[in-house]
């Protein structure tokens, strides 16, 4: 685990958490990568959906890859450890200037998320993209 839920930290290019990498719209900490591998070993191919809905707030939800239907307005942010990461269209518009960083903290995952019941859960952290990163990512998008 890299930080507690109530810790506030500014993440910059020079202080990315262990395992996280610059240059993409989504990345993950070493702890998140480890949990992704644990869940993949148990469930096979998985994917994430970052929504802004109710119930579990804006937690990244982890699902079996073939059991969650992506909406026509959802945006694929990238892939982390073989798991595709999507975000709802309205959330993408709000967060398009940030890099999302999947992390792990103590607690229970969302009710329908595969991290539930493990006493650790995924949490999304973010950092602003630099102007150069934003431009490069916008040019690389279809």
Describe what this molecule looks like in 3D:
The protein has one domain: HesB-like domain (Hypothetical Protein Aq_1857, Chain: A, Sandwich). The strands form two sheets. The protein has a four-stranded mixed sheet. Strands 1-6-7 form a three-stranded mixed sheet. With 142 residues, it is an alpha/beta fold. It has three helices and seven strands. Helix content is 22%, strand content 30%. The radius of gyration is 14 Å and the shape is globular. A hairpin with a 2-residue loop joins strand 4 and strand 5.
Keywords for this structure?
7 strands; alpha/beta; three-stranded mixed beta sheet; globular; Hypothetical Protein Aq_1857, Chain: A; four-stranded mixed beta sheet; 22% helix; 142 residues
Describe, in short, the structure shown:
With about 140 residues, the chain is an alpha/beta fold.
Q: Judging by the overall fold, what is the CATH architecture?
A: Sandwich
CATH fold assignment? Hypothetical Protein Aq_1857, Chain: A
Shape: globular
CATH class: Mainly Beta
Biggest β-sheet strands, sense, barrel: 4 strands, mixed
Strand tally is 7
Arithmetic mean of pLDDT? 85
List the strand order in the largest sheet: 3-2-5-4
Helices and strands, in order, run as: EHEEEEHEEH
Give me the number of helical elements: 3
Low-confidence runs of at least 5 consecutive residues: none
Helix/sheet category: alpha/beta
Number of domains: 1
Radius of gyration: 14 Å
